[in-house]
Amino acid sequence: MLVAKIEEIQRRREEAGLSRCQLSQAAGLPKNALSRIEYRQTSYTYPIRARAIAKALHCKLTDIFDDVPGK
Hints:
- The protein is mainly alpha-helical.
- The protein contains five helices and two strands.
- The model has no long low-confidence stretch (mean pLDDT 95).
């Protein structure tokens, strides 16, 4: 499992001119996926979702998520 670097995701999303909904859709996720992450409604993110978000933001996974050892 991964923990989001929320401020970094927000910064990159805003730089790209995307709303939370638009980024969710660009990553192929449900419309409210980024809202749940940015509003800390979820503690961990599955790697497949995290990779999709990183790809949509054109960055490395490690730029916007931290690995949680043992999860």
